[in-house]
Amino acid sequence: MDLTHEEVGNSSAASTELVILVHGTFAGDKSAQDVGERWWQRGSRTWIWLEENLPPSVSLPEADVRLFHWSGSNAQSERLAASVRLLALLMRLEKDGRRYHLVGHSHGGSIIWESLVSAQVIVDQPTEHEISRDLWNLLESNEVVPSDGMVTVYEPPGRAYWKQRESVRRDVRGLAELVSLASWTTVGTPFLRFLPSSRFFSRGWSSAKFTLSVKPSSRRYWNWVDNISALFGISTYIIPVYVVLGLFIDELYRPDGALLVAIAVIVFTLRIITGVMDAQVELSSTVLLREDAGLRCFSRFHDRWLGLWAETDEAVLLLRNTITGPDYDYRWLCLPVKNRDPQTFGNRVPPFRVPRMKLRPSNLVIGFIPRLPYKPRLDFHTVKKVIYSAFNKLIAPRLSEVLNRTLLNSVQGNDIPGLSLAYASPWPIPVADPPSGLPEYLSNRLEQKASNSLGRAGSLLREVAVQETLDGFSRDTGNGAKLANVQPLVHTSYFENVEVLSMIASHIAGLAGVEGERPAPSTGFAHIDSWMLESRATVMRKAADSLGALSQN
After folding, report:
1. Would you say 486 and 460 are in contact if contact means Cβ atoms under 8 Å apart?
2. Is the pLDDT of residue 219 over 50?
3. Cα torsion at 139, 143, 148, 152 (round to 10°)?
4. By the 8 A CB rule, do 89 and 112 touch?
5. Considering only CA atoms, which of 324, 302, 320 is closest in space to residue 311?
6. Residue 101 and residue 19 in contact, taking contact as beta carbons nearer than 8 Å
7. Which end is more exposed in the chain, N or C (fewer Cβ atoms within 10 Å of the end residue's Cβ)?
8. What is the pLDDT averaged over residues 167-175?
9. Residues forming a β-bridge with 195
């Protein structure tokens, strides 16, 4: 659903600080309903608990305000698109001068992070660079930028195009500072780092010579690729025009038909290759820009971040286990190649792979009793054996690899060609040995609850199967709702725990309207307050160490 001005709201409660909830993958509402039982919807147990426990100066979206929706698809492109829409909403709040707090679960946290990174990219861009057109359109519909923020520019010979007003771009960059962001909380979020893969003369992240220290500021570094691609693109139009003109102008040179076809095929092939190269280089440049912006983004906002996750969170563990390639330390990858110490890194192999397919020629069956009568027939066994052997050696390994890559990309949600998953971390920037995201006893409690729920789910599933068998499958027995209420995963059970909710509310309350030193956590649980205070100091120290080391690169 597209953002509208009403999603921000102009109600009387707009003077309070706003809490925006962002759900994760597969947690959206297909009918885009604001009221429901999902943790982020009005009327849910989590919503009611937050309403009762947030400080008076902070509120959830008012009744006349649309909640933030996104598709919930497991696709990186969907997450990036949702992050642009969220950024447009944040800029509306910035323009209204309303402070806000962000809470995201699972990939909802990823969407929040991508929004912050995109805002940092806008801030870092030179003033002559235009704002992304997708974001600009959303800002225009949200009345963040005026409808006349674009002007028509004419250039000889008779060329006209739309251009954003420089003064409006400057205002947008000011809003992208996100000065009204009070806090952001991520719960069970696997922060994914998709980096360029090796293809078409473009060095990928798994190469020992790849580095994140290269920070291109614009596409002008790659103009030679773009120019070559454009040249071959023009050629693909010139050739057919030349052929048509040759039919009417006798003086034109008419090459042999076979030669003309060969030239056309070569030019067309080179056009495709250079076009793919151009797209890959542009993609790599964009990723490097976002990586560089991400470091500065975390440097600005890490003191307002609360990251909660259990060590046994299934989503984080699963995505970590799908990564293939060298186990590079992120700080090492950020160093210029010439400044790196020679190190040996292990190679990560996912625990599940598609078995390599293998064709076997059929043989004479001799194991039946009584034995089958043998009937002489024309047999191509030798020919099949050669064909099958060639398939097993030449085609099967490559086909299996394609299936493996497709399976891994599907699990990772990687639907952007030219990128591969390099890191999956509970921290926005990959750090070595990240501190725990929950007290150990609380992680164990969530794990135990998930295990018990899994046992109940098995028993309930058998009960449902028996009931449906006896009663028939034609009528609605409500069994689907029974199964939906069972939470057999740690990843989906955070908001069922009052201590986790208390930590979220305490983090928001501690940064609500804060000017100066933050107050100590106050969750109502002394052991949780102590852990949060210690965790805050650990996060600040770890972030300072990591960002300090990265900034020296």
Report:
1. yes
2. no
3. 10
4. no
5. 320
6. yes
7. N
8. 90
9. 420
Q: List, in sequence order, every residue forming a beta bridge with 529; answer none if it has no partner.
A: none
Q: Is the pLDDT of residue 4 over 60?
A: no
The tokens of 279 are what?
């797209």
Residues 6+ apart with CB under 8 A from 56: 16
pLDDT (tens digit per residue) in 264-305: 777 777 777 777 777 777 888 889 889 989 999 999 999 999
Of 313, 341, 553, whose CA–CA distance to 443 is shortest? 313
DSSP state of 393: I
Q: Do the Cβ atoms of 191 and 302 come closer than 8 Å?
A: no
* Domain-located, residue 251: no
User: How many CB atoms sit inside 10 A of residue 442's CB?
Assistant: 22
Q: Whole-angstrom Cα distance, residue 386 to residue 392?
A: 10
Is 337 within a domain? no
Tell me how far apart the alpha carbons of residues 24 and 329 are, in angstroms, rounded to a whole number: 28
Locus of tokens 């107050």 = 519
The token pair that represents 8 in the structure block: 């921000």
Helix (H) or strand (E) holding 337: none
The reply to whether omega before 355 is within 30° of 0 (cis) is no
Q: Report the range out of 118-122, 375-379, 445-449, 530-534 with the highest average pLDDT.
A: 118-122
> What's the domain count of the chain?
1
Q: What is the DSSP letter of 15?
A: G
C-alpha dihedral sign at 36, 40, 42, 44: positive
Residues 438-461 have pLDDT tens digits of: 999 999 999 988 888 766 656 555
Q: Could you tell me which residues are beta bridge partners of residue 163? A: 151
Which residue range forms the structural domain that includes residue 468?
Answer: 438-496
Contact 45, 53 (CB under 8 A): no
Paired residues of 306 in beta bridges: 185
Return the closest-CA partner of residue 303 out of 517, 552, 118.
517
Q: Contact 92/24 with Cβ under 8 angstroms?
A: no
- Per-residue pLDDT tens digits for 68-79: 999 999 999 999
Inside any domain, residue 442: yes
Q: Where are the alpha helices (DSSP H) in 302-395?
A: 314-321, 330-333, 381-390
pTM value surpassing 0.85? no
Q: Which residue bears the tokens 């949060």?
A: 532
Contact predicate 305/547, CB 8 Å: no
CB burial of residue 491 (10 Å; 0-12, 13-18, 19+): buried
- Average pLDDT rounded to a whole number, residues 85-89: 96
Does 208 map to a domain?
no
**Which has the closest alpha carbon to 408: 518, 287, 320?**
320
pLDDT at residue 88, rounded to an integer: 96
- Is residue 30 within 8 A of residue 114, CB to CB? The reply is no
Q: Is 185 helix (H, G, I), strand (E, B) or coil?
A: strand
Q: How far apart are CA 168 and CA 423, in angstroms?
A: 37
